[in-house]
Design goal:
two-stranded antiparallel sheet, about 70 residues
């Protein structure tokens, strides 16, 4: 199952994007409620490797489940 980036928790650090082996982590075209640029995971491309979980410095920003309700795409 793909992972999700929790939009309102994401601080826009983006250590996850270059670490992703399949390039499924994309920058959103807007900001979250905190005013940060945020990132999202393409569920159709994610291979569930978990690298994003290990490199993200923000606790709770990436979760190991597909959650459309917590991850905005645009």
């Amino acid at each position: 199952m793909p992972h999700s980036i929790v939009t309102e928790t994401c601080m826009g650090v983006a250590d996850c994007a270059p670490a992703c082996p399949v390039g499924c982590i994309k920058k959103a075209g807007s900001k979250n409620e905190k005013g940060n640029d945020y990132w999202w995971i393409d569920f159709n491309t994610c291979i569930d490797c978990g690298i994003c979980l290990t490199v993200c410095p923000v606790d709770g920003a990436v979760i190991a489940e597909e959650r459309n309700d917590l991850q905005k795409i645009t």
